[in-house]
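Bit of a strange request maybe. I'm writing a small parser for structure token strings and I need a real example to test against, not something I typed by hand. Could someone generate the tokens for this chain?
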Amino acid sequence: MPDEPLYFTTPIYYVNDEPHLGSTYTTVVADALVRFWRQRGRDAFFVTGTDEHGDKIAQAAALAGVPPKVFADRVSGVFRATWEQLGLQVGWFVRTTDPEHERFVQKVLRDIHARGDIYFDSYHGLYCFGCERFYQERELVNGVCPDHRTAPTEIAEENYFFRMQKYQERVLALYEAEPERITPNGYRREVLSLLREPIGDLCISRPKSRLDWGIDLPFDDRFVTYVWFDALLSYISAVESAGRPDLWPHVHHLIGKDIVKMHAIYWPTMLMAAGLPLFRALHVHGYWTMDGAKMSKSIGNVVRPLEMQGRYGGDVFRYFILREMAFGQDADFSESALVTRLNADLANGLGNLASRVLAMQQRYFEGVVQPLAPGPADLALREAFATARREVDEHVAQLAFHRALESIWRGLDHANKYVTETAPFRLAKDAAQLPRVGAILHELCEALRATGQLVAPVLPATARRLMTLLGLPEEELEALDQRWGTTFSPGHRTLPAEVLFPRIETTV
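Reply from user aminoacidic:
Good idea to test on real output. This should exercise your parser:
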């Protein structure tokens, strides 16, 4: 339904490390989607937060020499502060140590247990502490965890198990019948392959003799809840706590490809067992790499978002990561590539156009916008931006921000060529041509207004600044259906030009 609300989630980030490029990318995508859909009149909301229980957190706290809760409080605070400093419009920040969340997890556990889908058994298996889960032999690569490249530990113990395999056929049938549930389709094919083999049942507890940092099982306090059974439920507990339980059936999960199995298999089976509605879709993105290698704190190639923002500006950083990564594929990060985008796209493309237009508007007319007199070249400029608007809507609906930005910049390229071809700076030498100069600059002011509206979800600060320079209220950013030529009333005055994006000089 076109008027239904939209609910986006990021993963609930582990607090064993501070925000990095991977977590920032997912959260910026969520923020841009919320801005995009709100601009189009939709009720849009996004949730992020921190995952604070389990082995990894207990180990990180022990290394820091503090209790797990003290450690979690500190790092969770860093996540929250980072998103605030990046200007992200987080609807709700959930912590898995929130009392409301813990109560919700225990309620769901009680419900599933009462239905007979949780049982007690002894188990012997291969456990990866990095992944916090048991592996089957066939899942290992040369005997080691495929993600952490370490050999799992053999563990024999008694635990509680969730009858996950009971729901396997239902989940398989769902994904076969509804391909839009997992995008891009390559990840859906991977999940279907997993579901065509036995998936077994899921161990959902850890004995307190081994780990006591977690949510107590409500039916046996000798055990704590498996971290994934805890964390996944935060997607629902968050909107319950936010007073928006109506959002849950409309949820779209944004995740990295390393956690597809947990979201595509564990999560729907849990929801089915609990009698809860399923998520609308999983949207899976690739890894950020540096020189082709996955980023890792241990090898020192982690990108910290606030450092990038401090060095280049928040909008520049947002533009780069949304322009550089094709959602679903891996992308390589380098500061040299960021600087190239800054200089070529932002400074030369958008920034140069705004400076030229506003400077001429000031020089020839003291900022007063002149009447229109559209000819063929002007109508072609208008059509270029109408095309950009249509394409942006199509691409963002598919999470293809890189293509949406390409479309906007084709409009900007057309505008820059229009300046060259109509040459108002030459026409202005002839006083008789000043009405045509004014009409050209009016068309270009409309192009800047349209650009500000289209880039607002990705470059929010820049969009606001463009509106100010054009002498327009910030509310104009929401007026996407404003008819070209009706924005600037007689006597409207623009402000003097400013440098939106200072170029960064590089040495060869």
